[in-house]
TrEMBL record:
Function: The electron transfer flavoprotein serves as a specific electron acceptor for other dehydrogenases. It transfers the electrons to the main respiratory chain via ETF-ubiquinone oxidoreductase (ETF dehydrogenase).
One annotated GO molecular function: electron transfer activity
Keyword Transmembrane helix in annotation: no
SMART domains found in the cross-reference section: ETF
A Pfam family this chain is assigned to: ETF
Protein name per Swiss-Prot or TrEMBL: Electron transfer flavoprotein subunit beta
InterPro entries the UniProt entry points to: ET-Flavoprotein_bsu_CS (IPR000049), ETF_a/b_N (IPR014730), ETF_b (IPR012255), ETF_beta_N (IPR033948), Rossmann-like_a/b/a_fold (IPR014729)
Subunit description: Heterodimer of an alpha and a beta subunit.
Domain Electron transfer flavoprotein alpha/beta-subunit N-terminal residues, every copy: 23-215
Cofactors (names): AMP
Species of origin: Pseudosulfitobacter pseudonitzschiae
Amino acid sequence: MKILVPIKRVIDHNVKVRVKPDGSGVDLANVKMSMNPFDEISVEQAVRLKEAGVASEVIVVSIGVKQAQETLRTALAMGADRAILVLATEDVHDNIEPLDVAKILRKLAEDEGADLILTGKQAIDNDMNATGQMLSALLGWSQATFASKVEIENGTARVTREVDGGLQTVNVSLPSVISVDLRLNEPRYASLPNIMKAKKKPLAEMTLQDLGLALAPRLKVITTNEPVARAAGIQVASVAELVENLKQNGVLQ
């Protein structure tokens, strides 16, 4: 069984995001970039499935700029077998929209003969949470979202999903697209020996023309703003004073 894992290069989750002065987008100059945290979880799950003998090959894919090579190398160091970089733009500020990403992944999945696609449920830069669902529709495959547990057996994936108020377990037939949530696993750290080995693993580069595709942007960012700053808190001397303050501010009736 082949597993395809899309990964995205995003601003590191520990970095404070800055908006450009003109409000046209996020400032990426001299900013640390890393793998999308949800994608780290999907890579880890794919590697675990291979280690368990369920999968024969794990292929990681990134779509965007050439700098995404380092992100792919990280995934290879975690245990993926090979990587594919689709050069879709030269500008790090260009955002490849979910539908375009889904179309690219559909072509790669068909060309590679993938049986399972594991995606992060969303990217932390735009929080779209759309690519996996769109990809499932384009391929005509089954799908399961927000997975906190995945078991593969006899051509079926048993997926435990996180839903409002609890957990839901579903069985989906393979091939399938599964998007993963935070509590599925704890991604491993790549050891130094594996980082060195990753440098020798195959990393293929291709363009949209190689795939016979072209981007068709449908969204336009009008403006980007910083979140509204929170008002400073106050200290109270007693519970009675706290209750009285809450009443005065309309929080309590």
